[in-house]
Amino acid sequence: MKKFFTTLSNIWKIEDLRVRIINTLLFLLIYRVGSYVVLPGVNYASVADQKSEGLVGLLNMFAGGSFSRSSIFALGVMPYISASIVVQLLGIAVPYFTKLQKEGESGRNKLNQWTRYLTIGITAVQAIAYVGSQITPEARLFTGPVFTILNTFVLTAGTLFVMWLGEKITDKGIGNGISLIIMVGIIAQLPGAFLTEFQSRTSGAGGLVTFVVEIVALIGVVMFTILIVQGTRKIAVQYAKRIVGNKQYGGVRQYIPLKVNAAGVMPIIFAQALMFIPTTIQQFFPNVSSSGILIALSNYNSWQHNLLFAILIILFTYFYTAITVNPNQMADDMKKNSGFIPGIKPGAATASFIDGVISKITLPGSIFLAIVAIIPAIASLVGVSPIFARFFGGTSLIILVGVVLDTLQQIESHLLMRHYDGLMKTGRIKGRTAMPAAAGTTPTAI
Known about the structure:
Layout: H1 2-13, H2 15-34, H3 44-47, H4 54-62, H5 78-93, H6 95-101, H7 104-133, H8 145-172, H9 177-202, H10 207-230, E1 232-239, E2 242-244, E3 247-249, E4 253-259, H11 266-275, H12 277-284, H13 292-298, H14 303-324, H15 327-336, E5 339-340, H16 348-381, H17 386-389, H18 394-417
Antiparallel strand pairs: 1-4, 1-5, 2-3
Helix pairs in contact: 2-8, 2-9, 5-6, 5-7, 5-11, 6-7, 7-8, 8-9, 9-10, 9-18, 10-18, 11-14, 12-13, 13-14, 14-16, 15-16, 16-18
Main location: membrane
Pfam families: SecY
Subcellular location: Cell membrane; Membrane
């Protein structure tokens, strides 16, 4: 306990880290306050107790309850994530976007601009569908085209503002802004879900013992998720020995830690964004809402929905790993620093070896993500309430674990760079591993 308070004191002593944490908390507070601001012309009393289930309930959880409250942030950041998916796919299929990806900072700025433009279009379409289907006539203080047009603009502006908050958190705060916003929305729903499940069990549906078993099982899933998220495959790298004067440089063996889940939380977020498409189509095109496949894909507990969801997660895991981990760049860096993998020739052979290792460890990582993502549906089938089942593994758990570990990693990096102890005396936060150093340098912990 003493070390814990000492660590908190060290965090507060670092001005840059202190400012970043305060900025992050203030930006998240703005988001949470905005999630309670109701759309103009909507009677709050009519939507305050509105319930959401299935995919709509999951979207409401990601939006921190804004969706069911008809808030100005009702659509959250999901349109921005959908736009990011489209732009990244265009980077593979369209030469112009592929060229932008290789142009460094200027190319990234242009891609971000395209993403923002596409976000506006996607948000506008979803806003029209939301106003037409989610806001009942009884909840409207006035009707007519003015109501739809006004709230379409407000919802679009709200999503753009949330997107801006996420970017500001990333730049001025600590952690990934978009992921933190989603995490805060999920955590905001946790106390209510926990209390609902407790009341349900203690009132006779299984008893307190069943509730305790559920909590123990949830803790087990969380622990296993952390192990997989932090799991790495180490590749030995030998650096050539050089003697300059009376000093020896290099000649030591280091390791490249390749993550089993290198893509982090992004594959499941991307897959979830695409799984909202059937629901959006049903809302925007009522005439096709009776389609059997659309109904099945919109059903959170259907096998069709969960099968497609799992496949998308596996595909996005490979896709996101491929665009974030570059074996050729890693091989070139090792060659420039006189490093090599024992038994593997430098250059193309090294890149091919690293790519093969990544492909092998990505498969079990992606399958694990898919299994955990569909656990809530299984939990619902065995009697867990739908609200609490969303936290019993699934998207919410992976996002919470991944985002918390990523944020802790960044805080620990700030501490270690300033010669303070990290957050844990034993064990290592994700990323706190010795990285291969260039010839003539010593490995540093990040």
